[in-house]
Structure formats: C-alpha cells, structure tokens
Design goal:
about 150 residues, alpha/beta, six-stranded parallel sheet, 5 helices, about 30% helix
C-alpha cells in the first residue's frame, strides 16, 4: 500500500511539479484539492517541464472533506509550523497520508484541529517562515519511506 501526499489548494505549479516528481519516483499517490492555482491541462504541464505527469497517480477532489471521506480510518499527518511534535516523532506505516496546505496560508485551523494529535513540523531556525513546500513533502515522505525500509524502491 503506497503512501499518500495531499496538497490542499496548492498555488505554485513548480512546487506541485516537484512533489509530483517525488511521487513518481516513489510510487506515492498525489491528491490535489481544488481550487488549484494553476492549470493541469497537458500543454501547460509540458511547458513547465512536467512531462512525467502521466507517471504519477494523481487524484482530484473538490474539498478536503471529500478527500478525507475517501480514507475512513486513515492516518492523516498534517504538516504545519505550528505543530508541537517533529515529523521524526512518529512511527509511520504504509498507507499513511501526509497533508500540506497552500503556500500562502498553510492548512486551515479546522483541518489542523481535526488532526491535532498528528500535526507534524520540520525543525528549523525561526529566521525564515518555513521550508519550500516541495522540500517539506520530500523530507517527510523520505522519513516515512526510510522507516518502512523503502518498500518497492531500489
């Protein structure tokens, strides 16, 4: 069972493209919650160098509630700079879901409250607001892959 990355209303196509590429090379499913800040029409993807998009299992939803309903009993880990616990504080298992918010605002307080026990953060100095979204997703996903001995990867 693969891991899942969910981007809630992503705004910057290059960030989503980087995450999509990470999903392609790891077999991770990418879930996108509308509205998106860019078009996923084929000509725009190719122009931005995302010619590997067809190798990614991408699924679209009109709301976070619709997405969450697709995973009853799923383990949701919400990335936020407001979390108390580091992403390394958890033992991950295949099928876990990593949720990231839009670049300008992060995740809504409602989502964070819903999964408050599994909010995670990446430790960093307080001199910059946060990591780049693509880097954050890769850091957290690769920790989960490491913990599960990189299933299906060589």
């Amino acid at each position: 069972m693969p891991f899942h990355i969910c981007l809630v209303e992503p705004e910057i196509p290059n960030n989503t493209g980087n995450i999509a590429r990470t999903c392609a090379v790891t077999g991770t499913v990418l879930h996108l919650i509308r509205p998106l800040g860019f078009s996923t029409e084929d000509k725009y993807l190719k122009r931005s160098g995302m010619d590997y998009w067809y190798k990614v299992d991408v699924r679209y939803y009109d709301s976070f509630a619709e997405f969450a309903a697709s995973f009853p009993g799923g383990r949701f880990f919400c990335a936020t700079t407001k979390a108390q616990r580091s992403y390394t504080s958890f033992s991950y298992r295949e099928g876990d879901i990593f949720v990231f918010g839009k670049e300008s605002k992060g995740l809504s307080p409602e989502i964070l409250k819903l999964y408050r026990e599994t909010n995670i953060r990446i430790p960093m100095r307080p001199v910059v607001r946060s990591h780049n979204l693509g880097n954050s997703a890769a850091i957290i996903l690769y920790e989960a892959l490491r913990q599960t001995d990189f299933p299906g990867l060589n």
